[in-house]
Amino acid sequence: MGLLLTLLAFVIAIGLLILVHESGHFWVARAMGVQVLRFSIGFGKPLLRWQRSPEDTEYVLAAIPLGGYVKMLGEQDGSTLPPAQRARAYDQLPPARRFLIALAGPAANFVLAVVAYAGVAIIGIPGLAPVVGTVAPHGLGQRAQLVPGDRILAVNGHAVSTWEDLRMDLLAAAVGSERLQLRIRSPDGRLESRELSLQKLPPDSVGPDFMEKVMGLGPYLPPVVGAVQADSPAAMAGLQPGDRILAVDGRPVYSWQDLARRIESYPHQRLLLRLERKGVTQVRAVTTEYVLDAKGQPQGRIGIVMAPLPADLIVRKERGPLAAMAYGARQTFRMSVLTVEMLGQMISGRVSPSNISGPIGIAEAAGQSFAAGLAPYLAFLALISISLGVLNLLPIPILDGGHLVFCAVEMATGRPLPAAVVQKAQMIGIVLLLMLMSFAFYNDILRLLKP
Length: 451
Fold this sequence. Notes:
- The chain crosses the membrane at residues 374-394, 425-442.
- This is Zinc metalloprotease.
- Keywords: Hydrolase, Membrane, Metal-binding, Metalloprotease, Protease, Transmembrane, Transmembrane helix, Zinc.
- This protein is an alpha+beta fold.
- It has helices at 2-31, 83-86, 95-123, 140-143, 163-175, 210-215, 233-236, 256-264, 321-348, 359-372, 374-393, 400-413, 419-449, and strands at residues 36-51, 58-72, 127-128, 132-135, 151-155, 158-159, 179-185, 191-197, 217-219, 225-228, 244-248, 251-252, 270-277, 280-287, 289-292, 298-301, 304-306, 314-315.
- Strand 15 and strand 16 (298-301) form a beta hairpin.
- The protein is elongated and about 95 Å long.
- The relative contact order is 0.12.
């Protein structure tokens, strides 16, 4: 079922993104008076096709769902067409109009991202409050003197509502190699500022695990027991749901992650847990079990489950339609800028290219977000749509960005590039695109092979 769900989520996402992208080209081409011969979702052998009449557009669903295209009359050489058809040929249009047709596909992807993010804002995604729970030694968070219990209020003046907001702000600052000004509320209620430099980070710093490995920060999850497994060490020690663990062997515990790390570090050992139960402090002795983790390393376990988060640590903000559209536009612009900056930093070697994902990685993310609910899936669609829009705007022949460059050159010089030059440039573009796809597949395979 997990595999089927992943495939379904991937097919829906890719199909929708291609449909929206190609629809942008299709409708603007029609508006410019160009005859569209075929509108295809996918490449290769047609599985389904429909055409109202021989003079109308043929709509095709093809076998390979990793792209699509709009075939227009006269894309290669409209000058050889009969005069009646020549007026509806693509290459007979002025370059400014062809520029708009090429631009329409990526623009449609950005519009989809705005609408998807607006949907997220209307539904609202519950998020963790930006309260620090763990501060790893030697991480940048420790260097900024952050401590468990600090609530991050703003990053460089930008208000932070959730832990995900904090992660994205810090990631964007890392890509831009900025100095950070953090506004925080300390555990005792004082408002303070912290400074942090994200300059000169290693190329492999920016990635999905940036918060844990580079910042050394984890969100606050209270060390409160939610359930106790039957016949477990915790049950034999008399632990109960609602117990708040205060210390392990005399060392204070600040968060659930802190508690889990302490217990896992002592396989088959006797520990003293100081806890609070209904306002009364108690001490319980527990002997951990000896188990092996996924990597075959020994770790301790006592058989407890974390309690549900209290309401003050869950942030859910819902917006009305107008506010949601404004949020969608801001978020789309922000993520587009971050995507372009990351691409630039990859080219300069300041960000690791291992962040590039191929179809396998995209499919995994699609399945995970789909299983999490509508709002997370919409956020995923928005992010992928932005990535597709930015990718297609790159000045690579065969992509929309390459066509934009050709049209811009023609507008500047007053004449089109020679056909031989365009053909050679497109061959180079195909090679570059194949190299990029191969590298993305390589990254996907490496992720799958990681233990």
